[in-house]
Design a protein that fits this description.
Structural class: alpha+beta
CATH topology of the largest domain: D-amino Acid Aminotransferase, Chain A, domain 1
Number of strands: 9
CATH architecture of the largest domain: 2-Layer Sandwich
Strand content: 15-25%
Largest sheet: 5 strands, antiparallel
Number of helices: 7
Strand order of the largest sheet: 7-6-5-8-9
Length: 276
């Protein structure tokens, strides 16, 4: 089965580079594919689970820094909309993009929300975007969590890419839901790298503010990433409080292209597949 998926992933990777090679990976994209095939562990499955990652936080940090959960459900029939607050986020725990942001419950189309949640609950996210098998064994749940967003505008995402337990890149994502999404890259001194992805445009004419909790985020990232060869640790900062968003092991399923191939090679050099 691994050989079948390796062939499929290689064929997809040729859209990035005609010499895409998983057997002798050099670039970060090739190494992410290698990890998908040969480094799928139960711990990754636990940490990709948006509910169980709360337990991992408590184990590693001695406290839960994730956004607080209001209620967990096994199926949509269990949801009592009346008991939920006026503002909340409702999600599935076993994939990416499976969330509904509710800023005003009175305006929520509950049937539409139920329909979306039921579709997501039937979806095995492991096979949605090119074999991300660490999602496969997650016990599928629905959960509601606290709304920590803004009345106007989107939350800023702070995404730390960690290589063998060392955070080396910060991606600042803004305006995700406004239609003006941008993703700027910084080093650990918060200096811009002038890197961009084909699917997430950058805009270095806009000056991102260094988060007040930057040093704390770096410290958290080091602790939460040390069990993995590669992971992206995502945070929010709201009213002076740092929250963990999620741990992402295969961002973009590893199929993205940078504005310059030098970034693919540099980030690939930072990841040693023989460690951890």
């Amino acid at each position: 089965m691994i050989e079948t998926y390796k062939k499929q992933l290689t064929n997809i990777g040729k859209y990035i580079s005609p010499n895409f090679n998983i057997d002798n990976p050099k670039t970060i994209q090739e190494k992410i594919q290698w990890l998908k095939l040969y480094d799928c562990t139960p711990l990754k499955t636990k940490c990709a689970d948006k509910i169980k990652v709360h337990d991992y936080c408590k184990e590693k940090l001695g406290k839960d820094i994730c956004v607080p959960i209001i209620k967990i459900y096994n199926k949509t029939d269990e949801i009592n909309w009346e008991e939920l607050p006026d503002r909340f986020v409702i999600k599935c725990n076993h994939g990416s993009g499976m969330n509904i942001i509710v800023k005003d419950k009175k305006l929520l189309n509950k049937q539409d929300a139920v329909n979306k949640l039921n579709i997501w609950m039937r979806t095995d996210f492991a096979f949605q975007n090119g074999y991300e098998y660490h999602y496969h064994d997650i016990e599928r749940k629905i959960f509601a969590e606290n709304f920590i967003g803004k009345d106007k505008g989107d939350l800023v995402d702070y995404k730390f890419s960690c290589f063998n337990g060392v955070p080396k890149i910060l991606q600042v994502m803004c305006d995700r839901y406004s239609g003006r999404l941008r993703l700027n890259y910084y080093d650990m001194d918060f200096k811009p790298l002038y890197c961009s992805r084909n699917d997430h445009p950058a805009n270095y004419n806009i000056t991102d503010e260094k988060p007040n909790g930057f040093d704390l985020m770096v410290w958290y990232s080091k602790i939460l990433s040390k069990d993995f060869k590669y992971v992206r640790v995502d945070f929010y900062e709201v009213n002076g409080v740092v929250y963990l968003g999620e741990l992402t092991f295969t961002p973009g399923s590893g199929f993205f292209k940078y504005n310059d191939d030098k970034w693919s090679l540099l980030f690939g050099e930072w990841l040693d597949l023989n460690k951890n």
